Fold:
Amino acid sequence: MLLESIDLIQFKNHLKTSLKFSPELNCFVGLNGSGKTNILDAIHYLSLTKSAVQSSDTLNVSHGTDFFSIIGKFRVEKKALEVRCSFEAGKKKQIFVNGSPLPKTSDHVGTIPLVMIAPDDTELIKGGSEGRRKFFDGMISQLDHGYLDQLIRYHHYLKQRNALLKQFAETGRRDINLLGSYDQELIRLSGILGKRRKELLDEVAPLLQFYYEKISSGQEEVKVVYETEALREDFGTYFSSLRPKDLATKNSNAGIHKDDFDFQIGGHPIRKIGSQGQQKSLIIALKLAQFQLFEKAKGEKPLLLLDDIFDKLDDERIAKLMDLVSQGTFGQIFLTDARPERSMGILGDLNAEVFFFEVEKGVVKK
Structure:
């Protein structure tokens, strides 16, 4: 899996940027706010059809303009692949693969596997359950397109059911048969999706432990515990038992949208007892486990994006990570750093081809 080149038009602060990449290491250097991370975000967009930073596509359009376009030329299984993502204000975004538009943007997810390690990743541990669900759902969706289709279907029925509950409260009239039809689908899909989430964590477990020990030199047991009601044998009965509460709260109180994932170290929540270093090591280990699973499933190494990684890690963890890089553990890597002399010193010692790109106010020089 290689990204050979990228063209950005009016994407964030890049009015017009065209770049060709090394098949090994590509490092973007420049001051904070110069547009380094925006290039990584454009690569993320080509893979997952959305920004890793902005929830609204409108916020990805350069100030004073009304559209953006990203074109990436890839080499996948030794075949050329061109992906174009475009968005115009007031319209839906479009994804073109080798010139042909995709009916659904979700059809593209998984075509270009990608793993990104970013400064705020520890929010997976510190933040709310929704962020953790989104991370693991995104991970499975890149591996299993059927899962993504079922997840979209689940959230469609959940939205319809919640709207119906609100309608009951507003009108005082209840269509219990219609509510029951939504219940059946949510119960069925919760079982399917919950089972797949558990299977993923079973696959992740040994890889997470392996990479945690590699990165941190720590021997503590680390794991992610899946917290769900969906795999209860009596889940259907449990779901139905909450109907009075659902009617009172005008919301669905059972289903996989209520799941959570508990990151643990030594059998205890790492958010409570783990040091910052332990939390960072666990998250990096999780992302490297993700990389390994993608490589196994796709038969090719996914793209690896490292945003400000040197700023967020101590020297020991940087050395451990770079040791994995020098061993050829990863394929094509894209990284950012605000200190050119530091990245040149670290990457210059590696036995790999490195392209350095200087970024200043959305303008890139190689």
Summary: The mean pLDDT is 94. The radius of gyration is 22 Å. The first helix runs from residue 36 to 48. The chain is about 45% helix and 25% strand.
